[in-house]
Description:
Blueprint: H1 17-48, H2 55-76, E1 83-87, H3 94-108, E2 118-122, H4 129-139, H5 150-163, E3 168-172, H6 184-196, E4 201-206, H7 211-215, H8 218-223, H9 235-255, H10 268-277, H11 282-298, H12 306-318, H13 342-345, H14 348-351
Parallel strand pairs: 1-4, 2-3, 3-4
Helix pairs in contact: 1-11, 2-3, 4-5, 9-10, 11-12
Region (Disordered): 1-27, 326-356
Protein name: AAA+ ATPase domain-containing protein
Organism: Alteripontixanthobacter maritimus
Amino acid sequence: MTKDTNEDYRDDPDHDEDAIADTASRGADRDARSKLHKLIAIRRLAVRSIHLPFAAQLDLEDALDEALCGAVELRDAGLQQAIVPILNVSFSGKSSGAKHYVRKKLASLEAGPGTVPVVYTKVDTDGTVGSLAADILRGCGAKRPYSLSGEKRWDRARQTIRSKGVCLLILDEFQRTGRRPTISPVIAGKILDIVDEGDCACALLGKTEAEQVFASCADLENRLDAPVRMPSLNWLTDSVEFMEFADAFDQALVDADITDIKSGFGDEETAQLLLEASNGLIGQFSRIIETAVIAITREGQRIITRQDLSDAVDDWAVANRRIGYNPFSKNGDDESADQDTPGFASSKAVDDEGEH
């Protein structure tokens, strides 16, 4: 029997046009959401890849470079190596500055086969001699860093430092070594052995709680170099530097094809509120801007407005208890008629468009 090719399926009681359309719509929605999620991931990466050194980070890089450059000479002379303490609160730019320095150095130094002149590693939360040895081995690219017992593992870490030609060892989150008060003096002594015997220079990054570890070993404390200060930025003393930084970050978003024009981050009023909202910490500033970028991406926008910045402060800084209020909301600022124009409705964002 020949099937009628002109059969109208709409007459079929099991045929549901609305259900078919709904299924197709859900599929399209899933595709759209998937594309949006990928775009957000790409833009998050782009924001986090922005590196604009400010004065304190340049001081950090100088201190690391001095320790690195002097390591070979001190080792050859049989003299103790440098120990550079770099301590401050979270989001002050310690880790990002150190990581950027390591990437830059490893890309530029002409290291021999199998050598790693600069090693960055993060201290494990265990805060033991064995875990620190594993951290160092992992940073050096050694296989099976957790093999062997604590002391033997430490001996292996020391041997690896020498065999890999490490000149500078950067230990981040160093305050974790003070987690166990009975162990921290032992760890401090182990670090002292590395520098006293000329293995390599060390930079100890972390929160100020790490000072307790230094205090537990007077010999280590006596050998510390001058600390690198990375204080929070203050509007009265650092306004010019921060406005330049914020403006450069604004331009970087345009260069990364995230926004079409600059949003006025570097304008005086905007910058002052952003500095206040971020507690003077570059890392917090970056997270606020990242939150705003994600929000405008979800909305399909390509410009960051005053309201977007205010919302980002609420969504990230206030919600995560970094600050107890929103500086953008003071004196009813959020209700102003110009809240939806970039850069606080200043003409700078428009004027700068021709520069891109």
